[in-house]
Specification:
Strand content: 5-15%
Number of strands: 5
CATH architecture of the largest domain: 2-Layer Sandwich
Number of helices: 12
Number of domains: 2
Structural class: alpha+beta
Shape: elongated
Oligomer: single chain
Helix content: 40-55%
CATH class of the largest domain: Alpha Beta
Length: 260
């Protein structure tokens, strides 16, 4: 039975004219667009492998291979994202091309009247507002244009400021490690994620111990309590949302908790 991935690839293969990819378009063709053999040649794979992929057989497509398919098939950004979603693979070029989303993210977060920040798949903060920078001294009080983005896990496990700021640090640290494992899921082998995990394991006994537990929990909201060095005790309800067009990004908002 043909898989959804195979159906998608075949449909888009049949939409690509041979001359648009530098191939002669003459001769009789049973179907429009590219033949499997031609697409296989352009993607530097065997026709048999491509046939099996379209037929839904048990073959694995790497992120690099899918990226080449997307280029040859002239997929739009939405179509490319859908291709990688069907294949359950991480797009290797995704992080390099945000489609100009940086300024839009900053404007969106700045408009929120509460501490708010956006995390990427590695839990680097890629955008945050002034209230968040004020709350998270030692993490977000940095230049937003810095080459190295502030990372939530590095702050949690490597910064003394986090232990003083976050009420119930031990419980929160355990939950964060389990949430991170659940969040990265099948992408755990990605080079950037693997390097981050190795770094944290080498630099934090607590992270290494918690990571070895293999705990997995969903990333949820709820009450977050802080003991701020200047503002005193603060309580917020955390709300986390995934962005519709960038599923690797999460918007985290800390809304003021009502007094009991």
């Amino acid at each position: 039975m043909q898989s959804k991935l195979g159906e998608f690839i075949r449909a888009h293969r049949e939409r690509v004219s041979p001359d648009s990819v530098g191939l002669p378009g003459g001769g009789r063709r049973r179907t429009p667009g590219l033949r499997r053999e031609e697409l296989a040649q352009l993607c530097d794979v065997s026709p048999t492998w491509l046939t099996w992929l379209e037929q839904g057989r048990d073959v694995s497509a790497s992120g690099k291979m899918l990226a080449r398919l997307a280029e040859v098939l002239r997929l739009s950004s939405a179509e490319r994202a859908y291709l990688f979603s069907l294949a359950e693979r991480l797009d290797p070029h995704h992080a390099d091309d945000d489609g100009g989303a940086g300024e839009a993210l900053e404007s969106m977060v700045a408009a929120i009247d509460a501490p708010a920040y956006v995390l990427d798949r590695q839990w680097n903060a890629v955008a945050w507002n002034a209230p968040a920078a004020t709350l998270f001294g030692g993490w977000l009080d940095v230049d937003s244009e810095a080459a190295v983005k502030p990372n939530l896990l590095r702050f949690m496990f490597r910064s003394a400021a986090a232990r003083g700021l976050i009420v119930g640090w031990e419980d929160r640290a355990q939950r964060l490690a389990a949430e991170f494992r659940a969040d990265i899921g099948k992408h755990a082998g990605d080079q950037a994620l693997a390097s981050l995990i190795a770094e944290l394991s080498a630099g934090s006994d607590e992270f290494r111990r918690l990571w070895s537990l293999q705990d997995v929990v969903g990333r949820e909201g709820g009450l977050r309590r802080f003991q701020h060095p200047r503002l005193g005790e603060l309580s917020f309800n955390q709300v986390t949302l995934h962005l519709a067009k960038r599923h690797d990004l999460k918007l985290v908002m800390l809304l003021s908790a009502s007094a009991a």
